[in-house]
């Protein structure tokens, strides 16, 4: 886990000027009085509190005035004892143990799959509702895999105060960003086949990868050999196939997550999905090119209207000025941006569309989605 100071430095460094973005983020108002600490709120624990997503959990909870009566920050032994300021109060980072979840209503996990597998069931046994950001439980048939704007009904049977805990899985970041845009179109015309090419930022590999990209960029510009600890090859001024392990079918694990998670979230094992996932030297926020084949005709004007009305989606699609979504525009923003909305010329009729999607991997692709799930529990 990386230091909170470094995470804050990256957060500040990568916040684009308001004049450079068209994307709204109505939850952020620095002059608003925070009313989050409330006696009638749930007790919350954040597992992996010092990591990039853990820090974003805190930012999102504050931005959305998420009510809580207490909050516990959990991390590894080496981070225990450090002090974290949150909403003008100081909290001591606690070491994650089996006793950490006593009296905890909601536990937000982002500390890796092995930690989730070990401590998630312990938290559930103690009565906590766990929202897990790792891949540990996503394909478990008994665990809902949820994007609140897409399939909130999947977690409809789970609530607080029912005397028992539960697990809810946060989908992979690339799946969330893709389906935020594809689902409104799927509801209208039913997607039969989806081809996705992703352009994934360093943020997807954590704060250490973001730090290495920054370091490598400086090193390369200074004519030095780049430091390659997180990735096996130069990342700065380069791109390469996603670093997830490659499976026997030739797809890597990141690509197969898009395939399997889409089918589970849409509850449609027949939808055909293929993906190619690439790491690009962008600090934060993923981009995806998505080709859709539909069962019913869907023209681009209707698609644009549908996306303009979709929750959590903003359309940036100005052909005249060649203005379309970019990762920088969506960095530190809640909305997923969609553009390049056009008919697929390779398909007869209006049965195919191409779209280009950008979303903040740390925010909507991880922390925001998890907090929105937690909000559904209230």
Please give a structural write-up.
Residues 1-36 are annotated as: Disordered. This is aspartate-semialdehyde dehydrogenase. The active site is at residues 173, 286. Homodimer. The protein is of the alpha/beta class and 378 residues long. The protein has 2 domains: 4-171 and 365-377, Rossmann fold (3-Layer(aba) Sandwich); 175-362, Dihydrodipicolinate Reductase, domain 2, CATH 3.30.360. The protein has helices at residues 4-13, 52-63, 113-125, 173-189, 207-221, 253-265, 300-308, 327-330, 363-377, and strands at residues 43-47, 70-75, 83-86, 89-92, 94-95, 106-109, 129-132, 166-169, 191-200, 240-241, 272-279, 286-294, 313-315, 336-343, 352-359. The strands form 3 sheets. It has a 7-stranded mixed beta sheet. Strand 13, helix 8 and strand 14 form a beta-alpha-beta unit. Helix 2 crosses helix 9 and helix 4 (173-189) packs across helix 9 (363-377).
Keywords summarizing the entry:
alpha/beta, six-stranded parallel beta sheet, Rossmann fold, 9 helices, 2 domains, 378 residues, 15 strands, globular
Total E-strand runs: 15
Query: Measured on Cα atoms, how large is the radius of gyration?
Result: 20 Å
Q: What is the percentage of strand-forming residues?
A: 15-25%
Look at the structure and give the mean pLDDT: 92
Stated plainly, the CATH topology of the largest domain is called Dihydrodipicolinate Reductase, domain 2
Q: How many independent structural domains? A: 2
| Poorly predicted parts | 1-8, 10-22
Determine and state the CATH class of the largest domain. Alpha Beta
Quaternary state reads single chain
